[in-house]
Design goal:
By secondary structure, the protein is mainly alpha-helical. The protein has a single domain, classed as 5'-nuclease (Rossmann fold). The longest helix has 19 residues.
């Protein structure tokens, strides 16, 4: 994992928690996004997580209420403003290496974070998140020969 001035020279994907904070216009996220040298990206897994939340609510309640429809529209607007990085063959190879090295409990809890990290690594992006511990767990299982997982932690 890398920190420091080199962080300023790379592109970042936003973890789902940061995308949600951006949707709610949290000042700490708006400030950090303004400081980025390159526009933020999202992984296809982050898009899945964000949209899944709305679909889960709709499935439970039989539809989306006006507030949730507005939140979904705002989320889709933010998604469209970002580059979406696919979970491709390179990301799959990274995830396939790490996944069996995690415990069963870790695999069940962190598979989405693993796919986000693998996608970011495959596309040579860092990750902006509030969940440092989860991504450090994944980084600790990367092969030593692999590029480091570059994280920035954005918190209020």
């Amino acid at each position: 994992m890398g920190f420091g001035s080199a962080i300023d020279e790379i592109s970042f994907v936003l973890d789902t928690d940061i995308l949600t904070a951006w949707r709610f216009q949290k000042p700490y996220v708006l400030q950090e996004i303004k400081r980025l040298k390159y526009p933020p990206a999202l992984t296809s897994i982050t898009v899945f997580e964000a949209l899944h939340g709305f679909e889960k609510s709709a499935a439970k309640s039989g539809g989306l209420n006006k507030r949730i429809e507005q939140d979904r529209a705002k989320t889709e607007q933010l998604i469209q403003s970002c580059e979406i990085l696919p979970f491709d063959q390179n990301a799959a190879a990274i995830a396939a290496y790490v996944f069996p090295r995690l415990s069963q409990i870790e695999r069940n809890k962190h598979w989405r974070d693993l796919f986000i990290a693998a996608t970011a690594l495959a596309h040579r992006h860092g990750i902006a998140t509030r969940n440092q511990k989860d991504f450090e767990l994944i980084a600790n299982h990367l092969p030593l020969s692999h590029q480091p997982l570059r994280l920035v932690v954005w918190k209020p």
